[in-house]
Each structure stands twice: as C-alpha cells, then as structure tokens.
Amino acid sequence: MSVQERKQRERAERERLIVATARELAEQQGWDAVTTRRLAERIEYSQPVLYSHFRGKREIIGAVALGGAAEMAAAVRAAASAADGPRARVTALARAYLDFADRNPAVYDAMFQLDGGLAFAQEDTPEPLKDAFAALLESLSEVAGDGVHPGLFTEVFWAALHGLATLTRSGRLPPGDAERRVELLVDRLAVV
Amino acid sequence: MSVQERKQRERAERERLIVATARELAEQQGWDAVTTRRLAERIEYSQPVLYSHFRGKREIIGAVALGGAAEMAAAVRAAASAADGPRARVTALARAYLDFADRNPAVYDAMFQLDGGLAFAQEDTPEPLKDAFAALLESLSEVAGDGVHPGLFTEVFWAALHGLATLTRSGRLPPGDAERRVELLVDRLAVV
DNA sequence: TCGATTGTCTAGCGGTGCTAGGATTCGAAT
DNA sequence: ATTCGAATCCTAGCACCGCTAGACAATCGA
Q1: What is the pLDDT of residue B6?
Q2: Domain boundary among B19, B35, B53
Q3: Does residue B19 sit in the same domain as residue B34?
Q4: pLDDT exceeds 50 at position A1
Q5: Of A57, A159, B187, B188, which has the fewest Cβ atoms less than 10 A away?
Q6: Is the CB of A46 under 7 A from strand C?
Q7: Which residues form the HTH tetR-type domain (chains A, B) (predicted)?
C-alpha cells in the first residue's frame, strides 16, 4: 500500500503547487494573466493535468480563496489579540483587514470579488470562510451595542471594510485619506 | 452641409444604440455574454463598426457606466427630496442607492466593479460621476457631524453602501436582513 | 511476461477581443 | 452625366481563451 500512499502524497503536493502557482501568478500579473496554459507551463505539466485536480479555472480560484481566508482569519486574530480594550481591538482589526486586502489584492479578489464557486453564508459554507467571519465576529461583538445582534453588526462592519478596500484599490476613492476613513468608521460604528 | 449633419446625427444615434444594446444584453445575460460578436449582431452591423465608435469593449462598459451614473444621481436626488428631515433623507438615500444596485446589477457593475477606463476621484473625472458623488454628498453632509469633513463622511458612507450592495448580490451576505442592515448603518453613521 | 489500469500528452473544438485590407457606396467636381 | 476620391462597411483572419477527446506510455498485479 505504500506505493499508493506515495502517489497520493505526490498528487496532493502537486495540487498545492497548482494553487500556490495560481496565487503567485495572480498577485504578479493579475487574474487575467492566470490562464490554464500559463499555469500549466509554470507547474511544468500539460493543461489537462489541471483538470484532473480541479473542475476548471473557477475551482482553482476557489482554492486560492480558501487559503486566503485562513490567512486573513489568522491576521485579524493576531492583530486583535495584540490590542488592549474593545475599541483598540476593533481599530486593529479594521487596519489588519484593509492591510491584508492591500497586500494580497489577488487573493482578496478570489475571496470576495471573483466567482470561486464557493457557498457563502450557508450551512455548506467551507470552514475557512466561516472561520474568517468568526474572527471578525469575535472582536466586533464586543462593540455591537446593546440589543444589536452581533452577527448583523459584523455584517455591516464587514461590508463597510469591504467597500473601503475595493473602492480604494480600484482608484474610486482617493488613496490619501485611508487612515482617516478607518478612524471615522470605527468612531461611528463601534459602541464603546 | 446638411448631408454631413445628417450623417453625424445617424452616427450619434448608432452610438446610442450600441450603448443601449450593450446595457440591455448585460442586464439580460450578464456582462460575460456581452461579446463583440453578439453585440454586433444585435445592432445589425459587423464587429469593426463597434471599433469605429469605441476603442474597445472597455470603452463600451465605460459608456454604460456614465449613463448609469446620471440615472443613479437622479434616483438618489428624487428619493432624498421626497423625504422630510435630514435623518429621513439619508435613509431614503441609502434605500434608493441599494435599490438601484439591485434593479440594475449590470449597470452597477459597469460603474463600480468593472474596468470602464474611467477616471475616478480626480480632476478629469467625467461629469456624471462627479455629479453622482455630489448627489450623495448633498444629503449626507447634513448628517456628517461637527468637525467631520463632509466629503470624507460621504466616502465612508458610500463605501458601506457599496459593500452591502456587492456582498449581498454575490450571495456573500444573507439576503434576508437587508433592511435591518440599512437601519443599523444609518443609525450609527448619521449624526442626527 | 503479459494484460490492464493509470497517468500524461498532443491536438483540436468553439469561443474571445481586435484588426488588416479589400469592396462598395456615395457626395462632389468636372 | 460622368468620373474621381473619400468615407464607410464587411470578410477574413490573428493570437489567445477554457476545456476535452483520444492516442500513447508507464506502471502495477497476476
């Protein structure tokens, strides 16, 4: 059985390689540059190999998104746990979120802009996505305010962050006042 | 000269037809279905004709976006002017914005999700875009609060609306509680 | 050693945005 | 009325896309 196990390991390793390469290529040249041909060339296999791991390009995007969600959850939790007090935690969380989006635009797109074929806000939502939301919820429920459902508050806060992240990156908001916008957002939304 | 004038009129009319057809097709079947071939077929001309009006598909998206911006500005102003008091105006504005995004998803995408080659938040930003932002600013500056720059406040409020609009439509936020989210957002952001 | 299974590749399908270059139409000047 | 020149439009094609059928080679179990 050891031979089969080795093959399985190698297969899993190759799958990781595909996802990592897709992510790398997307961050370097944008998702438009991530074509099945280029991706196949980079991993030094032919195109059909991609389809033996994923149903199509969409699923590859989805795989990148899941990895990114785990990473973002960790980043948000790390930032929050390093801050003292609910208010400081929320500010740190907001900065960490926007920082992640800024540093990993392609991954962020895979998670929240592109179609990766993933289910959101449902029972069959993949665990990393649920957990990323949970990471936001943990710090945000502290400042939701009395009588306000923490989940609902988190959704609104998240939506605001998402709007800031996407509009800023696409040049639709001037890049300069990012920090002031974060402060205003936290000031108003968070109930001390 | 009348012949030339007629030709110019016909050309302008055909350009409107292209933009209207692109918008229609995008709303019916999504922007992916708006290919130069299909678009050319619908307007009953060959593909190269499109390129005598626009540099490429991107510019067509941009043209749709400009028309949409004018429409959205009007919708927002109409809703705001029908409400009494600053607080009610902002609620009406938020509902009108989200309603527009919901009813015209393809146009909304052309404006805020896709690349239409338009300049945002700069001097050379097209007038309809500036005016759409101005329409938000008019009602929102009433509730920005003392010492808060109205433009900055509008940016934050707009970003929140944009996040709600896009995350809801892509299924990343549960569709049910949309109204409650709007109320929470207005409650917290607007200074009565 | 042989047959079957697994793995991988070449080649190709129908589609995309975009364009070169030829054909046609049509106004204007003789 | 005829001819010339310019403007207009279309056919055909380029390089690329996501995806897949089917041929081929390598590997495994008997």
Answers
A1: 77
A2: B53
A3: yes
A4: no
A5: B187
A6: yes
A7: 12-72
* Cβ contact A156–B160 (<8 Å): yes
CA–CA distance from A31 to each of A116, A163, B110, B155 (Å)? 12, 20, 18, 27
* A:35-94 residues touching chain B, CB 8 A cutoff: none
Place of tokens 């790398």: A24
Query: Is B184 in Cβ contact with A153 (below 8 Å)?
Result: yes
Question: A83 CB contacts (<8 Å, ≥6 apart)?
Answer: A89, A91, A92
Q: Say whether residue B108 is in contact with chain A using an 8 A CB cutoff.
A: no
The 3-state DSSP composition of chain A as helix, strand, coil percent (nearest 5) reads 75, 0, 25
CB proximity B178 to A under 8 Å: no
Backbone angles phi, psi at A41, to 5 degrees: -65, -40
Distance from residue A190's CA to nucleotide C21's C1', rounded to whole Å: 65
Nearest to A177 among B113, B152, B173 (CB): B152
Residues B13-65 pLDDT 10s: 999 999 999 999 999 999 999 999 999 999 999 999 999 999 999 999 999 99
Note the pLDDT tens digit of each residue in A44-65. Answer: 999 999 999 999 999 999 999 9
Q: Are the beta carbons of A160 and B159 separated by less than 8 Å? A: yes
